[in-house]
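Predict the assembly for these two chains.
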Amino acid sequence: HFILEENMLEVDCPCVTPEVVLKASGHVDKFTDLMVKDEKTGTCYRADHLLKDYCTEKLEKDLTISAEKAAEFKDVLAVMEDYSPEELGAKIKEYGITAPDTKNPLSDPYPFNLMFQTSIGPSGLIPGYMRPETAQGIFVNFKDLYYYNGRKLPFAAAQIGQAFRNEISPRQGLLRVREFTLAEIEHFVDPENKSHPKFSDVSKLEFLMFPREEQMSGQSAKKLCLGEAVAKGTVNNETLGYFIGRVYLFLTRLGIDKERLRFRQHLANEMAHYAADCWDAEIESSYGWIECVGIADRSAYDLRAHSEKSGVALVAEEKYAEPKEVEKLVINPVKKELGLAFKGTQKNVVESLEAMNEKEAMEMKATLESKGEVEFYVCTLGKNVSIKKNMVSISKEKKKEHQRVFTPSVIEPSFGIGRIIYCLYEHCFSTRPSKAGDEQLNVFRFPPLVAPIKCTVFPLVQNQQFEEATKVISKELTSVGISHKIDITGTSIGKRYARTDELGVPFAITVDSDTSVTIRERDSKDQVRVSLKEAASVVSSVAEGKMTWQDVWASFPHHSSAAADEQE
Amino acid sequence: HFILEENMLEVDCPCVTPEVVLKASGHVDKFTDLMVKDEKTGTCYRADHLLKDYCTEKLEKDLTISAEKAAEFKDVLAVMEDYSPEELGAKIKEYGITAPDTKNPLSDPYPFNLMFQTSIGPSGLIPGYMRPETAQGIFVNFKDLYYYNGRKLPFAAAQIGQAFRNEISPRQGLLRVREFTLAEIEHFVDPENKSHPKFSDVSKLEFLMFPREEQMSGQSAKKLCLGEAVAKGTVNNETLGYFIGRVYLFLTRLGIDKERLRFRQHLANEMAHYAADCWDAEIESSYGWIECVGIADRSAYDLRAHSEKSGVALVAEEKYAEPKEVEKLVINPVKKELGLAFKGTQKNVVESLEAMNEKEAMEMKATLESKGEVEFYVCTLGKNVSIKKNMVSISKEKKKEHQRVFTPSVIEPSFGIGRIIYCLYEHCFSTRPSKAGDEQLNVFRFPPLVAPIKCTVFPLVQNQQFEEATKVISKELTSVGISHKIDITGTSIGKRYARTDELGVPFAITVDSDTSVTIRERDSKDQVRVSLKEAASVVSSVAEGKMTWQDVWASFPHHSSAAADEQE
């Protein structure tokens, strides 16, 4: 659905990652959760979880709280993601929150890094971490990937593999675990052109979207047309919109219920400062709306961070058809004068002058020319200094350029595979009454595409003739790559159907002759008669999506419902 | 090839493994290599590598050594795997081996555990390791897997994933790395019946085998018939033989040259004490014969080890059709008498008595009856004690048993995927002269099955009509799941063919009209003409093995060699 469709490069990077890579990406310093400890037992808890649980419980169960207090708890829930350790600690103290298991007092919150640490090689001196995401492996290999792609943009690289997060308190069943399968796509694109040639393939799609404004104003998600959402600027750009559409098609094709799937835009406080826009595909489950896919425009942040740390330029070029004459800003600090004026802090002043953008520099030039002096803020000193006319020369020069060199933006769809599969189990689970009406039978309505077992084969009764025919069919199913299960128990055929319905097997072949068989479809319970020879290829065609069950139903004689009744 | 063919269960266990699991498996205590340190710089080396390099270099390059000395070096190379740390250290001292980089003296050898260690959870108190193999995850889940398989033997579970080994000195390019992809099959079987119903499918295969005896007597590998090797007992049992045959078919189907593939039996000193038999599929590469797949009968060792540590029985049952009357050995130590005689060591004596097998017990019974007393070795005390007739009663009792309970044996094919792929690159690499004969062109002759890119599409010249047709073909290739690459550069078609030959792409579609195209096969360079509409489905049929290139060659008009010449 993704790799072949976009001709993506596939990579497989190691899980054990040297510290320098994760230092550059910011994970060593910032990939933390705030933790509190039970002061007597030492048991650890996530500070925000305790505060969240406290406020939620008060709101849901305490009927005595005032409207004012309720509003306060709601406000805390809304803004707590932005709390500093001190603010979080103050709230925990204020509400008198204690350790849930022992009621002991809690320590102040402190940051706990979520990466599993290890040491690489025999010396014990090279620290490493288990990767917390797969993306960094793609970023550090950007130079080679760009080369493999013939030095052309846009292109994407994709990776699927394990990611590791040493969660303080795993919870919510299989949704928050310490090791999980991530699939990530890093689509590199010219920041000046984020259009997408295939956007029209998805622009007509309509599905539940939940933009920032609707969340802030207390509305709920609503059906929007993707093309309009991009046109109105609700979604930042076409490429981001294209991937949102492709993710929608992917999830619904797997079997996710489109009424329980929404795309929620990150609020300003959720989003990294460098991100241009970010949407989560959220799937509703018994645990609430679960973030299963994140689709973010991360701008040029990641490639720049690795470039800065490694000194290796991670850039792309656009060759001009004709050389272009461009005006270039030239800032020449006069080091002698600056040294006399600022002595030990000269270096800070020089760096700040050189870092000015065109607008700032041209304003300074104008002020210096009119007044001979200007107040200038040096951020690394945290104060203003006075710059005089003889301390810096600012000019614009004309140059011929043959190409534009730039750091690509990256648009990243990132899939939590385990979470998607968990939600798929919930969405595909259903019950129906047994024939006698005395019990509810469980059915997993997995689409054939994702059902782990595609087909079961039942000899109707235990005899050699049927078992031989079963073997023939099994061999053919194997040769066409169809996973299947054989049930040769003497149990009634109805019970055997119920058993594989519960496993989510979409098709069952019942062998009741050595020349022809019945094929039953799980959801409709419809049955057709097919010759022994064709059985495997019919199942494989439907399982692989080359034909639908409707096609099969139209092409083969139906198994009479009387006979079917007899069996079930 | 494996999973569907044997209806194996598929599992995906975590990489981060709690210490207790790897304590039970023996890895915490024994998964070590002997390491020496440069005494001045602290640089670490594998002790056996240094000794091996020293002996090999002496044998290969030092023409002055005596025949006696040469024999000694050869002997050291043959037996060094069995050396204790002390013996290895003594040899290093004797030969005056120093650190290769600095010539500094070396420390004594000491064991270094090859597992990457980490800590699980926020407390820092739960040690864990990155799994050094995937197998243990299957063993600890045996109980559930057996249940999923309907409590029937034999069955197999398979897993593919990352394994981690903190090698002291990674070497040999990509062959010895610290993180790699392992694929392991654990086939559980009744130890009393290791026959295999499908053995006849592989018994006629003949390929290079290198049994223990041939290695010990200095012969080389020779072609043996697998069925005969099992019948003669060279290979321990049918199931082991079946998997050897299946591995042979797998590797050759991937494109491994059968003349550079051999199955080498482990020597007695290479094999774990519990293993019944073990064969390595070794592939010859520029680094020599490389172990790529290990196929071992590990008996019941692994399941027993986890049972003992966890106290959970990992067993299978065989229900008898009729209850069986069996004679059961009953050993009843008389604790009162033993307590009087042995006081504090009574427990050791009781355990040793109870642990006797039938033969030992019946011999003791006979001696006690004839002599009234017997000398009995208690291994946990390390000495003999005197057992008198009143201290133990030994008898045989008849019981009715309804089932037999036993620990299954496990037969384990274990695949180093990276090593296989590396060898595949070497075996598929070839060169051929360019048309003009002035250069050697590189070709990767990957079989279509494994070629990462199946097809390239070239518009013959750059024009809109051909580019549109190229897009149509590309879309169809995507819809049938065929990975492909489009080369729209204006380069000559011959150069474009050479470029994709070097990438190992088996088929190239050249678009030179908007109704029909040519398809060229990489190895023969033969070309056929196919209608635009059929192109994708023809390529997909050959790439997926549904038809051969010979079939295509027989069914479609050949592209005249004159025209082909013109192009190349």
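The two ends of chain B are 38 Å apart (CA to CA). The first strand of chain B starts at residue 9 and ends at 10.
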